[in-house]
């Protein structure tokens, strides 16, 4: 396996549209890197440039110590798993798995041994004599994964491989793929992976690190915990987390009691920890607080924002309470067994943020100015 590096990589089209804006990314050997972002953010375009399926118009792609810009896909040492599986319909699973090895004219015994090894790892031995049309979606995806694995590439590339599966099967395949990656690492065969998805659940549960993209730019690269707790900007804060972070305009002001945030004429303290990290003592900002970090209190409670309940969503294990505060909607997540079932739409409630979990973002650049 090998590390992967993108150095100032760009992608422009003939009509002048620039899809990728000089991005830099370093994927360590054996790392599981996830590219995530909304539709149109260029994550799949970036993956296709790594694979050699899209021409790079600026910068360099390195696999190991080789610049691969001008190499065809077959010479780059990569294997790709697609969203639509891309299995050969006229070939049995056995021949689909071994196709790449047969192209390289490897010895028959070696091909058979590799096929048995890979099918055993993926638990598809009983499928070897079936045609793709006889497979379920999950089985077909495992065969596609096996066809990539058998080639022992330097880098695995996954392009939204679970998008066509139902929710239960997606969850199962997430576990299977991450377990396979860990198993290869434990066997001293570390698999370097770049995995593209628009699903943040896949990103957060599968990636060693996650690269969040927007409009052809990299917004932040970090491990899942850092992305959740210390988002670099308002975009990452709003994209990562379910329900998404509450992001509302507010005014940051200083006073005798310390700095506070004002919204709709209501003020709340930012707390000593956050105050120590803030350089600015005034001006318009964006306040950020995750729904899980809001506490429901009495409407007239101190250091709380007063709002009116506009919606209640019972999710089974938790309740999502939506409250209007001065025209801005806040979402608060409460465990079902702690929720006051007397609360109804139209009731007034207080929402008290956990100050140690609050964020303050620059209203113009979106940068998180509350990070230490």
UniProtKB/TrEMBL annotation:
Keywords: ATP-binding, Hydrolase, Nucleotide-binding, Transport. The keyword Transport applies. One of its GO terms (cellular component) is maltose transport complex. Pfam families: ABC_tran, TOBE_2. The keyword NADP does not apply. Residues 4-240 form the ABC transporter domain. It is an enzyme of class 3 (hydrolase). Its EC number is 3.6.3.19. Belongs to the ABC transporter superfamily. This is Maltose/maltodextrin import ATP-binding protein MalK. The gene is malK_8.
């Amino acid at each position: 396996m090998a590390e992967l590096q993108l150095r100032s990589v760009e992608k422009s089209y003939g009509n002048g549209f620039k899809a990728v804006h000089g991005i830099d990314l370093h994927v360590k050997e054996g790392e599981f890197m996830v590219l995530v972002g909304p539709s149109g953010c260029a994550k799949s375009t970036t993956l296709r440039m790594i694979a050699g399926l899209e021409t790079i118009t600026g910068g360099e792609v390195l696999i190991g110590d080789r610049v691969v810009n001008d190499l065809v896909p077959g010479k780059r040492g990569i294997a790709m798993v697609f969203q639509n599986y891309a299995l050969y319909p006229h070939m049995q699973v056995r021949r689909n798995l071994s196709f790449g090895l047969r192209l390289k004219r490897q010895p028959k015994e070696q091909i058979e041994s590799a096929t048995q090894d890979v099918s055993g790892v993926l638990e598809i031995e009983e499928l070897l004599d079936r045609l793709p049309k006889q497979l379920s979606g999950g089985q077909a995806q495992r065969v596609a994964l096996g066809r990539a694995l058998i080639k022992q590439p330097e880098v695995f590339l996954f392009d939204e491989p679970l998008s066509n599966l139902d929710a239960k099967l997606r969850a199962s395949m997430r576990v299977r793929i991450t377990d396979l990656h860990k198993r290869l690492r434990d066997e001293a065969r570390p698999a370097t992976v770049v995995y593209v998805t628009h699903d943040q659940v896949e990103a957060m549960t599968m990636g060693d690190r996650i690269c969040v993209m927007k409009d052809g730019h990299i917004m932040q690269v970090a491990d899942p915990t850092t992305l959740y707790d210390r988002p670099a900007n308002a975009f990452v804060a709003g994209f990562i987390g379910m329900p998404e972070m509450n992001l509302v305009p507010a005014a940051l002001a200083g006073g005798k009691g310390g700095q506070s945030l004002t919204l709709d004429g209501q003020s709340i303290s930012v707390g000593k920890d956050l105050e120590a990290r803030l350089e600015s003592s005034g001006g318009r900002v964006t306040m950020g607080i995750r729904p899980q970090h809001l506490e429901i209190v009495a409407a007239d409670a101190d250091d709380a924002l007063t709002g009116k309940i506009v919606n209640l969503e019972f999710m089974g294990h938790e309740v999502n309470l939506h409250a209007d505060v001065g025209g801005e909607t806040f979402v608060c997540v409460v465990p079902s067994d702690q929720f006051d079932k007397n609360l109804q739409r139209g009731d007034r409630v207080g929402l008290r943020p956990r100050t140690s979990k609050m964020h303050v973002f620059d209203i113009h650049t979106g940068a998180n100015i509350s990070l230490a």
